[in-house]
Amino acid sequence: MPIPHGFRDLKVYQLAYQLAMEVFHESKSFQPEERYSLTDQIRRASRSVAANIAEGYRKKRYPKMFVSKMADADGEATETQVWLDFARDCGYLSTQQ
Q1: Contact criterion met (CB below 8 Å) for 58 and 7
Q2: What is the structure's pLDDT at 30?
Q3: What is residue 3's predicted lDDT score, i.e. its pLDDT?
C-alpha cells in the first residue's frame, strides 16, 4: 500500500468527499421549504466529515489533536447518517440511495 503524500491520498478522505458530493447532488431535489433546515444541515454535516479528516491528517504529529479530529469526523459522520434517515423518511431519498 503506497504511503499517502497528503490527505487527498487517504481512501477515507476520498470516500468522505465522494459522499458529501453525492449528498449535495441528491439534496438539490429536496423541497424548497427544507432549504434552511434539512438541506443545509445534511450538507454541512457531510462536508465536515471530509474537512475533519483533512485537518486531522495535518495534526498527525500531535496524537491527541489527531484523535480529537478523527472523533469529530466520526461524530459528523453519525450526524450525516441521522440527516439521511430523516431525508429517507420524509420521502426525499429512497432506501437504495
Answers
A1: yes
A2: 94
A3: 72
Q: Is 91 left (phi over 0), alpha (psi -120 to 50) or beta?
A: left
Q: Where are the alpha helices (DSSP H) in the chain?
A: 11-27, 40-58, 63-89
- According to DSSP, residue 10 is labeled -
Mean pLDDT of 5-9: 92
Is residue 41 within 8 A of residue 83, CB to CB? The reply is: yes
Q: Smallest Cα–Cα separation from 40: which of 91, 86, 96, 97?
A: 86
- What pLDDT digit, counting tens, does each position of 28-64 carry? 999 999 888 999 999 999 999 999 999 999 999 999 9
Burial of 29 from C-beta contacts in 10 A (0-12 / 13-18 / 19+): exposed
Element spanning 64, H or E = helix 63-89
CB 5 within 8 A of CB 21: no
Dihedral sign (CA 31, 85, 13, 15): negative
